[in-house]
Amino acid sequence: MLPLRDTHGRTATDLRVSLTDRCNLRCNYCMPAEGLDWLPTEQVLTDDEVVRLIGIATERLGVEEVRFTGGEPLVRRGLVDIVARTAALEHRPEISLTTNALGLAHTAAALAEAGLDRVNASLDTIDRDTFATITRRDRLGDVLAGLAAARDVGLGPIKVNAVLLRGVNDDQAADLLGWCVQEGYHLRFIEQMPLDAQHAWHRDEMITAEEIFRILEKEFVLTPHGEPRGSAPAELFDVDGGPATVGVIASVTRPFCGDCDRVRLTADGQIRNCLFARQESDLRTPMRAGASDDELAELWVRAMAPKLPGHGIDDVSFLQPARPMSAIGG
Question: Which of 18, 22, 115, 279 has the least C-beta neighbours within 10 A?
């Protein structure tokens, strides 16, 4: 076993696998309304290539968790089969999915049967008009139906990830939390990060963790959750004494880089050792040229070693990655 360890002593055991850069929503803090080119099909890893690399990660490199992301992973036709083959690996990882839940009502049962363990869903509001404004699609009902279907087939705990946008949905944060508590979903608010395709992110427009706390504490009593956070990105708080919790992922103002245990594989076979990395390491080309599993594992280990100590958003020299979140994977 070759651990994916960097020079700062961190070991990656959580692999995020982007299955596509395509998405069936157009959230305005992530993508432009039109004009974003998708990866050519021939550049995207095949199902067999995805499963092979996951197998190398789990059986040779110590990866224990695999999360499928996008774009929107539900638009990947082979998703159910990829999940089933991942679940059948000798060193079976925990398998999760980050999704907008748009097609989840039709696929939740098949995914659960294939071996998916749980779902993370992106949902910034439960107001239909606001949802349409943010996503540029009037599909809130389909998303809510997808979440309910995932819950009904046991894909929990279901985590809901929300981004607050100033003047758009920041006045709805308490309503969203109340609804999640009622439905049994675990809500996590995420500070907006500089990963939009438009490169329009400005820190002074971002709603910070401190603002999120102030908004929520107008209607709820929040107390720190007792369990240690570990490498999890969310700071957890009990809501009105529990058992319900709410999390805040303060990637910008309270970075947790020192405890990071994640590595990312893009849909076109590039290793990213950090979400904000400006360099990638190519596994697709050597794999298609006939590299062995041992050789690919060694390339992967080398890709992790130079991981920077932090994302550097506060540094004056910080440059946003060329790839947006939709192409990197969550």
Answer: 279
Query: Which are the contacts of 140, defined by CB distance < 8 A and separation ≥ 6?
Result: 125, 126, 127, 128, 131, 132
Q: What is the block-wise mean pLDDT of the chain (330 residues), using blocks of 10 residues?
A: 93 96 88 80 97 98 97 96 98 97 97 98 97 96 98 96 94 97 96 67 79 96 83 88 93 82 96 87 98 98 91 66 68
What ranges do the domains of the chain cover? Answer: 4-328
C-alpha separations of 107 from 66, 77, 80, 154, 215 in Å: 19, 11, 8, 13, 35
**CA distances, 152 to each of 118, 149, 184, 317 (Å):** 12, 5, 11, 47
Q: Judge: domain 4-328, CATH 3.20.20.70.
A: yes
Asked if 68 contacts 17 with a C-beta cutoff of 8 angstroms, the reply is yes
Residue 95, both tokens = 């398998």
Query: For residues 135 and 82, what is the distance between their CA atoms, to the nearest angstrom?
Result: 28
Closest to 148 (Cα-Cα) out of 185, 114, 117: 185
**Residue among 214, 271, 219, 212 nearest 247 (CA):** 212
Question: Which residue has 């390491």 as its token pair?
Answer: 281
Strand 235-239 and strand 159-162: the pairing is unpaired
HSE-up of residue 142 (Cα within 13 Å, Cβ side): 16
- How far is Cα 9 from Cα 258, in angstroms, rounded to an integer? 9
Within 10 A of 48 (CB to CB), how many other CB atoms are there?
11
Q: How far is CA 137 from CA 26, 33, 106, 134, 142, in A?
A: 7, 10, 19, 8, 11
* Gap between the Cα atoms of 262 and 247, Å rounded: 19
pLDDT in tens, 246-302: 999 988 888 778 889 999 999 999 999 988 787 899 999 999 999 999 999 999 999
pLDDT of residue 55: 98
Q: Give whole-number Cα distances, 82 to 13, 122, 303, in Å.
A: 19, 22, 24
Q: Please name the residues in contact with 203: beta carbons below 8 A apart, sequence gap of 6 or more.
A: 252, 313
